[in-house]
Structure formats: C-alpha cells, structure tokens
Write a structure and sequence with these properties.
Elements lengths: L3 E5 L2 E6 L2 E2 L2 E5 L8 H13 L4 E7 H4 L9 H12 L3 E11 L8 H4 L17 E6 L2 E7 L7 H22 L5 E8 L12 H8 L4 H9 L6 H9 L6 H5 L3 H24 L4 E6 L19 H7 L5 E6 L4 H9 L6 E2 L1 E2 L5 H12 L3 E2 L13 H6 L15 H20 L6 E5 L20 E3 L3 E6 L11 E8 L2 E7 L1 E7 L6 E13 L2 E8 L2 H4 L2 E2 L3 E10 L1
Parallel strand pairs: 4-5, 4-14, 5-6, 6-9, 9-10, 10-11, 11-13, 12-14
Antiparallel strand pairs: 1-2, 2-3, 7-8, 15-18, 16-17, 17-20, 18-19, 19-24, 20-23, 21-22, 21-24
Helix pairs in contact: 1-3, 5-10, 13-15
The protein binds (2R,3S,4R,5S)-2-(hydroxymethyl)piperidine-3,4,5-triol.
The site of (2R,3S,4R,5S)-2-(hydroxymethyl)piperidine-3,4,5-triol (DGJ) has 8 residues, from loops.
C-alpha cells in the first residue's frame, strides 16, 4: 500500500512500505530547497545528524508560475536527491498560506485582487497595520488572501491536485514522499476574524445547523474557554448568538478549516497520502495576536468537523512549554507530529522524549543546519532566550544530536513496533525535573521514574554526579528482565516491581551500537562503571537484570 496511517495498539502510526515508520526528520529553512544545488550540503548535514527524512517546501509560485502551466522539475530533483541518500520526504504545500500570509501565492494570484480577494482586518483595506504583540507598540503592515475567496480556494485546490498527481506518477512505486503538509501556519493575524462586508454578512447569518449541533455534542473534549462559550450560547442563531465570546475565532476556524479541507480533498482524490496541518501556537495570547482560525488546540473540534481529509494537527514548538504543548496536542488521542522545533540544547533531548513518551510520528527541528551554531537575533527571540533557563540560550551540540539521531534511526523499527504500548517510555530533565528534597540535600531529591512490568527505572538528572540540565532517557523493555536504554546526562537506578521479589541485581550492562539492525556490543560495563550507572554522552545500553526475595 502507499504510505498511510493506521491505528496500532490504539495509536495512529505512519506506515511506509507497510511497516511502521518514525519520521526522524528535519525541516529546512524556507528558501533552501528552491535550489537542489544548495540542498546537496543540507542533505549531507541531515545524514550526519542521523535523520531519515526531510520536510521540504513545495512552493505554489514555483510550481505554477503561470496559471495552468505546471513545472514539477524542482520537487522531482528533490525526490531524486532523497532517493540517492535513502531518505524520505514530507512536502510542505506552501499555497494560499505561509505563516498566516500569502507570500508563496503565484504572481498571477497576488496581482488579481478582484478574483483573489485579500482578507480585511480593517474594513475596506487590502493591507492594514497589525499590532505585533501587546508589549511591542509597533504596527506591521499585513496582508493575506481571504479565507472566503472561493476562486482562490479553487485555484489552490487545482494546483495542489496537480502536484499530488505528479507525486503519484513519479513516486507511488518508490514511496520517497510519505506525507504532505497542506498549507503552512494557516489563520489570520491582526484580528479575530475578517471584517469585509461579505464576512460581516456571513457572521450575522445563522451558523450552519450541522456545525452548531456538532459543537454542542463535543463539549467533553473542549478547552474550558470554548466549552463555556458553546454551552452558554443559543442552539441556533447568528455566530455571536450561538458561540458568544468565542464567535469570532470559531468563525475564522470554520472558514479556514473548510478551505484547507477543500485543498486537501482535491489532492487526496488524486493520491491519498497522509496529510497534516501545522500550527502557529496561540501562546495564551488574544485572537489576532496569533493566526486565528489555524489549528490551535482550542479549535480542534472545529477542525475535526471541517477537515475529514486532514490526518493530523501539528504544533510548531518554539516556546519553552514543550511538555504542555505535547500534552495539549495529544489530549484527544491523536498522534504527535512536530514539524518544527527549536535548535537550542533541548533539541536532542526532545527527540528522545517525544519518541519515548509520546510515540511521536514525527520530530523535526526547524532549520536543522543551524544546529551547533550560535543563535541569530531572530532565533534568540523565537526560542525564548529572554527566559531564565540557560539551556534555551545554548545551541544544541551537533555531535550529540547526531549520536542520538544515528542510534534512534538504527533502532527505529523496534521502537516503532512498540508504539502504543507501555514497553516504550522516556523522561527528560526539561519535562520531568527531579523533585528537590525538602531539606535541600541534593542526594535526597526524588527522580522521575518509569514503571514497566517487572521493574522500574529511576533517572537522576541534574544531580551532583550529572549536573547537566539537558538530560534525557528512553527505555524500551524487552521483557521483565531485559531492556534497552538510550540517554545522556543522567544516572540510572533499576528497582524491582515484582510483588514478593523486592530486590533487583544487574546481570549484564553492555554498551555498543547498532549497524544495519544488528547489535554490535562494545565494552561490558561493570565495577566502577555500574556502581553508579550513568550516561554522560548519548549512548545506548543493553541491560539484563533479575529480581529476587
Ligand atoms: C514557522 C514557519 O512555519 C516556518 O516556515 C518558518 O517561517 C519558521 N516559523 C521560522 O522560524
């Protein structure tokens, strides 16, 4: 079968060539993949980092430079490059939306404002100032295509269908391209909804009855804010009457999501690869400060209703609250697919954590070729360098990411097989900090602990023996007396979880590496090395133990 998503052990899993596949990926900077020659060096870096896939823009303006005339030479060259390196691709359809703007719409779309109307965040204006943030008193000129533009939606859908047709013809047999993201960070900035005369009329008209009743029937999974708005509204009436304080945002979400679904549907009819929608997070801000209508977690019920052709909503995570965002995006049982994440020193630990804890479908640092380099001012702003955590101000070490990347790429089939089970778990210093002892004794701190059938593994981060703040540890239990551990900057303590057998002793601790799926043992660790078992740099250990009375 072509790449598709199936539930395994209750969790949606990506299957490529009919086998579970984890995207150990990287997303390139927006302009890199416009030049296959430039990309050669980027593929090299991806290989060094142990990645098995890249997320690459497929820009509408380069693919359909003139209406109806398509040029697929760029995606074709990128697919050829991936094949040479045994890598996979997720294409990012930069169509009507790119970061809530329309930069990648072809010139013939941008220039025809009559046929392809712009969103109005100020009545009658095609471009208007938007406040960037409540704390920065500057208005930036803003324009984007209207989410109500029927002709725009049709043109985008037609182009996307042609693109998917090309992928089917060129790649169906080889399965180099395993998924496609439809649009990029959709939504409207500067206002909670469009305010053109057309938008105002639709907003004052009755909410479609099927949508209103769907929302009332799905309040159990909603965030408190949206649930309260839905429950306090009328069963039918205008958007304000039905959805009260959330009306503007739900109106935008309804129209953006329907638009995205129409584009995805046109593509899926031709070649039904898994399709995703990525998200610029709301960061607790007011609608309009983030792209409103995009798939932020509080409007997932709206997107569920409107987008049967989108398989997964994906957070772009540049904020420090990594754990909270992962939890938010998986709260309703969906797969975790992170197409973009920051390249500071939690970058590699987050890879370990998302695979081990959330059984992620994809983890992908954005602009991964920056790993190891000092931050630019823009990255500093994006990654939250203004907060106190020094790990957020430190670039990810290149070799360490590569070490984890290679270990996990080799282990990918066995990790993927354990997805959806309790046999695979992980903790990290960022997401599971140790709980300090009440008396401040660093040796008395309570470490995070993973519980498996038969044993427990406690992981000491930031202890006197492992002072680094960017530790992570993944454990894959093979049985109740054997496991694989992947981690760094942590100390490990195994204890028994077998009733009546409270004691546990180690029998074998082996370091080593996987090559073509086979385990090549290195040193047998014992004595000083296991007296206080620690992983300093990224490594994998094969451990056996037994429990007794
Ligand atoms: C999020 C976007 O989705 C990416 O394409 C890129 O613009 C990054 N932001 C830049 O940090």
């Amino acid at each position: 079968m072509i790449p598709h998503i199936e539930k395994k052990n209750g969790l949606p899993v990506l299957l490529v060539e009919d086998k579970p596949f984890i995207l150990l990926a990287g997303e390139v900077h927006n302009s890199d993949s416009s030049s296959p020659a430039y990309m050669e060096g980027i593929w090299d870096i991806a290989e060094k980092l142990g990645m098995n896939a890249l997320l690459l823009p497929a820009p509408w303006d380069l693919i359909e430079p003139e209406e109806g005339k398509f040029d697929f030479s760029l995606p074709q060259a990128l697919i050829d490059q991936a094949r040479e390196r045994n890598m996979r691709i997720v294409f990012l359809w930069f169509g009507s939306w790119k970061n809530a703007e329309c930069m990648y719409a072809p010139a013939w779309v941008k220039q025809d404002l009559g046929r392809f109307p712009r969103a109005q965040i100020e009545k009658g204006k095609n471009k208007a100032g938007r406040q960037v943030s409540p704390t920065i008193p500057v208005k930036m000129p803003y324009t984007t295509l209207s989410y109500l533009g029927e002709e725009t939606r049709k043109a985008d859908a037609k182009a996307f269908a042609a693109f998917m047709g090309f992928l089917k013809d060129y790649d169906e047999k080889r399965q180099t391209v395993v998924a496609v993201q439809v649009e990029n960070e959709t939504g409207l900035l500067g206002a909670a909804r469009e305010v053109s005369d057309e938008a105002d009329a639709l907003f004052a008209a009755p909410v479609p009855a099927d949508f209103a009743s769907y929302m009332r029937a799905h309040t159990d999974t909603m965030t408190d804010e949206i649930r309260a708005a839905v429950l306090s509204g009328k069963e039918e009436g205008s958007w304000s009457e039905v959805f009260g304080t959330a009306a503007d945002e739900l109106f935008s979400a309804y129209h953006v999501a329907r638009y995205v679904n129409a584009v995805a549907e046109a593509g899926k009819k031709v070649y039904p690869l898994p399709m995703s929608a990525n998200c610029w997070l709301d960061k607790g801000g007011a609608p309009g400060s983030y792209p409103t209508g995009g798939p932020v977690s509080k409007v997932h019920e709206v997107w569920d209703f409107c987008t049967p052709n989108i398989d997964v909503y994906c957070p772009d995570i540049y904020v420090p609250q990594f754990k909270a965002v992962c939890d938010e995006f998986t709260r309703r049982g969906g797969a975790l697919f992170i197409p973009e994440s920051a390249t500071h020193s939690y970058c590699a630990p987050r890879l370990v954590y998302t695979l081990g804890r959330h059984h992620a479908m994809c983890y992908s640092p954005f602009g991964f070729d920056d790993i190891g380099k000092p931050f630019t001012a823009v990255q500093g702003f994006l990654f939250g360098m203004d907060v106190s955590d020094p790990a957020l101000k430190t670039p990810q070490n290149f070799e360490e990411y590569g070490a984890f990347g290679h270990i996990l790429r080799e282990m990918m089939p066995m990790l993927a097989e354990s997805y959806g089970t309790k046999r695979l778990q992980a903790v990290s210093a960022e997401t599971d900090p140790v709980i300090p002892a009440p008396d401040g004794n660093p040796f008395g701190a309570i470490p995070p602990t993973m519980s498996f059938d038969g044993f427990r593994l406690s992981v000491r981060f930031q202890s006197p023996l492992n002072p680094r703040a960017d530790g992570a540890c993944l454990c894959l239990a093979v049985s109740d007396s054997e496991c694989w551990v992947v981690g760094s900057a942590c100390g490990l303590t195994f204890t028994s979880a077998v009733p009546g057998k409270p004691n546990l002793d180690l029998l074998q601790v082996e370091e080593g590496r996987f090559e073509n799926g086979a385990w090549i043992p290195g040193r047998r660790l014992n004595g000083d090395e296991t007296a206080s078992l620690s992983l300093e740099a990224p490594a994998v250990l094969h451990i056996r133990f037994f429990t007794y009375e």
